[in-house]
Specification:
single chain, about 375 residues, alpha/beta, 434 Repressor (Amino-terminal Domain), 4-stranded mixed sheet, 3-stranded mixed sheet, about 50% helix, elongated, disordered N terminus
Length: about 375
């Protein structure tokens, strides 16, 4: 159904009235200018999240609006009519409300470090990931502020400089000890990190993007690729934890730091004592079913088990090369066998959202906005959960 949009200049505070098919913006003359600037900023944000240039967006809308007009919208020099506004929301996969909702908590990501396949991840894709993370964190921090929460902050900050694999191994043991993990498998790495005060979020992104770490207002941020499987997310999340918490020796090159982050992640997932107990002190061959069983229990990929066994001295370099060669010949690098039964997805934001509704801290309409859903869809979801 078509929505008609009217701008009415009043002497009152700007606000939005909506019915099923009519949107009326009640505003002052000064407010109209502010709204144009706000719309421009939000349009730019939505376009960046979609990974589109101005010309890409014009093409996606089949030239219903020109690149030049889009540029003027983003600069706050023009406002679109109702038809164009609705087409913009569909093209960018956001609600119309998104364009006129000013975040209560404006954030910028600091100290951003990507874990990525550098040659494959474009600058546009990087910007899209950062913008999606920033937009989500604005809503996340707003929700925490509304609930007046005292946020736990992780105290794990390894102090000994990490120079080599043995140091990374020691750091993993220190983490397990401080967080009382013992030597058991970790059911959910993401839940563990959220319990320790980390903000963990997922974004739809190019497959070349694995993860990133950042800081926002003192909060430690880990961003993962929503498309990846649970085992890959577990490893990436712990890799980013290493970037947050380990002090790497200054003389190390970037590739060496990345390798040590891998070592740390594998050691947290599969402690040395348990790896040696299950795989033995020395091996010359592994059977596929054996590796699948380890993967299913510990949530670590078969691909990561080979360097883990090499580092612990369970296999030698020749066996390591042979195992990797066979792994690729059989196509396991594209579709690895074995499955991990655990689920890896952030839960805390959703839990806080339902809590805020239940405490009547926010309205259903406000909750739908925070969830980035239109009101009808959100009400339907709540009815299904009731």
């Amino acid at each position: 159904m078509t929505k008609f949009i009217f701008y009415v200049i009043l002497s009152t505070k700007p606000r939005i009235l909506k019915t099923t098919n009519i949107i009326v913006y009640l505003t002052t003359r000064k407010g109209a200018l502010i709204m144009e600037n706000l719309f421009g900023q939000r349009l730019t944000s939505a376009r960046k999240m979609a990974g589109l240039s101005l010309q890409d967006l014009a093409d996606k809308m089949e030239n219903a609006v020109t690149r030049q007009a889009l540029n003027k919208y983003e600069k706050g020099e023009m406002m679109p009519g109702s038809t164009v506004l609705i087409r913009l929301s569909k093209a960018l996969n956001v609600t119309v409300d998104f364009f006129f909702s000013e975040p209560d908590q404006k954030v910028e990501l600091q100290g951003i470090e990507f874990r990525k396949k550098i040659s494959r991840l474009s600058k546009t894709a990087e910007v899209a990931v950062i913008e999606k993370a920033r937009a989500f964190l604005e809503r996340y921090l707003e929700l925490e502020h509304l609930l007046q929460l005292s946020i736990p902050v992780s105290e794990f900050q390894y102090e000994t400089p990490v120079r080599n694999a043995a140091d990374a191994e020691a750091a993993a043991e220190a983490l397990r000890k401080q967080w009382n993990l013992g030597y058991d498998p970790i059911p959910s790495v993401i839940e563990m990190l959220e319990d320790q005060g980390f903000k963990v979020l997922e974004v739809d992104a190019d497959d070349a993007f694995d993860g990133l770490k950042a800081l926002v207002q003192g909060h430690r941020i880990i961003v993962l690729n929503k498309k990846h499987n649970a085992v890959r997310k577990r490893f990436t999340a712990l890799h980013e934890l290493a970037h947050h918490s380990l002090p790497f020796a200054a003389q190390l090159e970037e590739k060496d730091v990345e390798r040590l982050c891998h070592t740390f992640a594998s050691a947290v997932l599969y402690p040395a004592a348990m790896a040696r107990a299950e795989m033995a002190q020395e091996r010359f061959h592994f059977f596929l079913q054996e590796l699948e069983l380890i993967k299913e229990r510990w949530g670590i990929s078969i691909a990561a088990l080979f360097p883990r066994a090499l580092h612990l001295g369970i296999i030698n370099a020749n066996t390591y090369r042979r195992l990797n060669t066979n792994y690729r010949i059989k196509g396991y690098h594209r579709d690895e066998p074995g499955d991990f039964g655990g689920k890896e997805r952030p839960r805390r934001f959703t839990q806080l959202l339902y809590r805020a509704i239940g405490q009547e801290v926010i309205s259903i309409n406000h909750a739908a906005h925070l969830a980035e859903m239109n009101l009808g869809e959100f009400r339907d979801k709540l009815e299904q959960l009731a």
